[in-house]
Model the fold of this input.
Amino acid sequence: ILHWFRTTPHAIAFIEGDVRYTHGDLGAGILQYRAALLAAGIKRGMLVGLECENRYLHLLMILACEVIGATSISLSRSDLSHGDPILDRCDALCTRTAPGRWGGIALHLTQEAIDRIARTTLTIDELTHLDVAWPDDHVQRLVRTSGSTGQPKIMAMTVAMVRRLLERTALNEHHPDRDWNFVDLYGYTLRSALMESQVALRRGRTVISSSFETVFADLDRIEACHLTLLSGD
Done:
């Protein structure tokens, strides 16, 4: 992300609806949310629950947590309203939905808060915060399993595991050097969608936030791309 921020800052990194974000916007956005998370009291080693239907903001918060060294887990609005047990393990919540009676650190992403974070001024020296490497055993993400081989459960993803997943996701025997864009149908509560998005962004390409209502129009908006479908879809 830092490489493309420096070399092709005006290239399109993310498209959501009619809004386009460049690789320059992406790098700056990660640093702005890093500052917001730190100001809220979030730090390395904490578990942070993230709920945001806007996929670009969701991605920025995931990557900002990575930069800080906090572990993130993506939550749905249903998880919050039904009191998912993982909430008791979270140190902080960053949500678009009001967190209600929450005893931990809360960053409520109202439109006013989002606008304020977007106005955060940055210095060139802060780019070094994007160039971070945590130890291989550092837990970067918590993800839910599908439950296809038993009861659904939550799995810890270390830095080493994420790196292997990214390498495996990027590998394609028919296109070993592929630099494809990614059309995302599901959002970041799904592990594979995050992996595909990160592979595209690491290659300097574009992620399109799509849906079943817009997917064919979105496919017409872009050149070669990768699209993942879940079984039954």
Notes: The mean pLDDT is 91.
